[in-house]
Amino acid sequence: MPTWRLPACAVAGGLALLVVLLASCGGSATPSTAPSAAAIRAYVAKVEHVRLPVNQLLLGADPILDNYRTHTITPQAAGDEMSQLEQRFATFVVSAQSLDPADSTLSKLNAPYAHTYYLEDNYLSVVAADLPGNDFDNLPDTQNAQRLAIIEWRTQLEVAARAAGVRLPADLQQAGRGEIAPSPTGS
């Protein structure tokens, strides 16, 4: 009696077809990747513990630069004050990097947002170094990259929050708007 053997590729193809058919019978084969309401609330609470104090801290840059421009303080004093502000800001860089949400979607969303803290810290550091010499040719031009990252973060967070039925803090809509990099020359 002859034995029939199917080629290996036919067996593999048949198994693949069977897997597809079985998956389609049971509904969605992939779990939802949308963050839960609880995960979004926890993440936003952590972000607010960094974002709000940073906003307050950065308000301190304008008086330093105003005093520098009006010659109320020396360029060296302005550089020293800006350096102190930058050193306080550096602690928030660590905080932003430490947010690390457990939800993978929020983690991906947070990474570019947290990176903006590196860009701002670098900018503040260069401003502090350049003030004593009145030479601002070294200032990094990161304002647009920061703004874009923050707007994308804010928008994606809003989309996830709406899908989960979470209301975000009203002032979050201001993130990415307004001044990002205070100018020592006032322009």
Structural account:
The protein has 187 residues and is mainly α. The protein has one domain. The protein is 65% helix and 0% strand. The chain is built from 6 helices and no strands. It is elongated and about 55 Å long. The N terminus is likely disordered.
Can I get a quick summary?
The chain is an all-alpha fold. It has six helices and no strands. It has helices at 8-25, 37-59, 61-69, 75-97, 104-130, 143-164.
Shape: elongated
Please, how many domains? 1
Number of helices: 6
Distance linking N and C termini: 93 Å
* Helix content, binned percent: 55-70%
Tell me the structural class. Answer: mainly alpha
Secondary structure tally: strands: 0
**Residue-averaged pLDDT, rounded?**
81
Q: Radius of gyration in whole Å, from Cα?
A: 26 Å
Q: Which consecutive residue ranges, at least 5 long each, have pLDDT under 50?
A: 1-31
Largest sheet: none
As a percent range, the share of strand residues is under 5%
Compressed to H and E, one letter per element, the order equals: HHHHHH
Topology (SSEs and partners):
Elements lengths: L7 H18 L11 H23 L1 H9 L5 H23 L6 H27 L12 H22 L23
Question: What are the main properties of this structure?
Answer:
187 residues, single chain, elongated, disordered N terminus, 6 helices, mainly alpha
